[in-house]
Write a structure and sequence with these properties.
There is one protein chain. This protein has two helices and 30 strands. With 401 residues, it is mainly β. It has two domains: 44 residues, no CATH class; 329 residues, TolB, C-terminal domain (Neuraminidase, 6 Propeller). The strands form eight sheets. A five-stranded antiparallel beta sheet has the order 3-5-30-29-28, with no helix packed on it. Strand 10 and strand 11 form a beta hairpin. The protein is globular.
Length: 401
């Protein structure tokens, strides 16, 4: 999804405390930025020490959001749920709390839980971060996406959505890198394997989100948000559409082998901005949402050969005036759909009936289930990662046949 706009102010607010987000903390630059006497700044620094993180527009890459006391980074946020159906009570516990676990970024995306940690993309700083409870956040890989010798020229140079294959290998939508890649281990120094980067000889726009099917094939969306202008008339855009694709044998792709572009299948080409993507339990259906201008959720029947048919509109939220739109999406074991949407996280029944919305104080980009029982919903929202416990476990990232 396209990131929200940020102002050019040099002052941001985090937990009610003014913080200077700058890589140069000399007293001279601080006085220049805030135009106030040094003694006042010194007093403020003593009263409210802070770590440096990228919460405002800055030309420097955002450093990791860490703290000397990781537990203090978890802050309870008032929970507000817009309940539209009584069945929502069986999904969100009465004592549920919304917690912010790490913050200070510009636009976070693509969270995925593996082992005891959450990995997520911080797209503007071209990095993938790792957050572990009790240890805080750190940079796992930077640069993660665009690696050209010239400046990128756009707002989103990093990677985007992430998932795991059945072997536990991290698979990533390359976004500004314009490919789909897989890490063979969690050693970021090892070279990644590019699964595909083009269709019929033309480069992908900017792969956004992705999901594996139990047969080892990989499905992904390809809007233009990772291109420098993020528009359909971007000079780098080679495809006339924004599609949904399938790589039939992605799981079996030999590590280090060239991209398998000749087998890439175009499944959908009539959505203007395909974005979030997820399977129903049993993989009978594939859900794909569209971010703009229409804010819609679609359902497709998955045919035996892996292609799609019977497109059905599940829900249209185009007229909802709240901030945000359809984006990252996951499904629980009972078939309920959780998706970024206007105002926060939307929860639908398997039939597409809206059950309610978890209001989130920032624009939501993506989400995932985590924890040992997959009953913790992690939410990537603009500058922060939030979490909330739910009563129903999320589906495994890869279902069994």
């Amino acid at each position: 999804m396209i990131a929200p706009e940020f102002g050019s102010e040099s002052l941001c607010f985090r937990s009610g405390t003014a913080q200077a987000w700058s890589a140069d903390l000399t007293s001279q630059r601080l006085v220049m930025q805030f135009r106030m006497p040094y003694p006042l700044l010194l007093m403020g620094a003593m009263l409210a020490p802070c770590t440096i993180a990228a919460g405002c527009k800055d030309s420097t890459p955002a450093p990791a959001a860490t703290t000397s006391n990781p537990a203090s980074d978890v802050i309870a946020v008032p929970l507000k749920v817009d309940k539209l159906d009584p069945s929502l009570d069986s999904i969100i516990p009465a004592d549920a709390k919304l917690e912010r676990v790490t913050t200070g970024y510009k636009w976070v995306e693509g969270p995925v839980w593996t082992g005891d940690s959450l990995y997520f993309a911080e797209i503007p700083s071209n990095s993938i971060r790792k957050w572990t409870p009790g240890q805080g956040a750190s940079i796992w890989l930077q640069p993660s996406g665009y690696k050209g010798s010239t400046p990128y020229g756009g707002p989103e140079p990093g990677t985007n959505g992430m998932t795991l294959d059945v072997q536990g290998r991290l698979t990533v939508a390359g976004h500004a890198q314009r490919d789909v890649l897989r890490f063979e281990s969690f050693d970021p120094a090892q070279a990644a394997t590019v699964l595909a980067d083009s269709y019929e000889g033309k480069r992908f726009n900017s792969p956004n989100d992705l999901v594996y099917k139990s047969d080892g094939s990989l499905y992904f969306t390809d809007p233009p948000y990772g291109l420098p202008t993020q528009h359909d008339d971007d000079p780098l855009k080679q495809l006339k559409w924004n599609g949904v694709y399938r790589i039939p044998h992605a799981l079996d792709h030999t590590p280090g082998a060239p991209p398998d572009n000749q087998h890439v299948q175009l499944l959908v080409k009539d959505l203007t901005r395909p974005n979030g993507i997820a399977f129903s339990p049993g993989e009978k259906y594939l859900y794909v949402n569209n971010s703009e201008p229409k804010k819609i959720w679609m359902r497709y029947t998955v045919k035996p050969d892996g292609t799609l048919g019977d497109p059905k509109l599940l829900y249209d939220a185009t007229k909802d005036p709240r901030v945000g739109g359809p984006d990252g999406m996951k499904v629980d074991v009972q078939g309920n759909i959780y998706s970024a949407g206007p105002g926060g996280v939307w929860i639908f029944s398997p039939e597409g009936k809206p059950l309610g919305t978890i209001d989130v104080p920032e624009r939501v980009g993506n989400l995932t289930f985590g924890g040992p029982d997959r009953k913790t919903l992690y939410i990537a929202a603009s500058s922060s990662i939030y979490r909330i416990n739910v009563s129903i476990a999320g589906l495994p990232l890869v279902q069994t046949k």
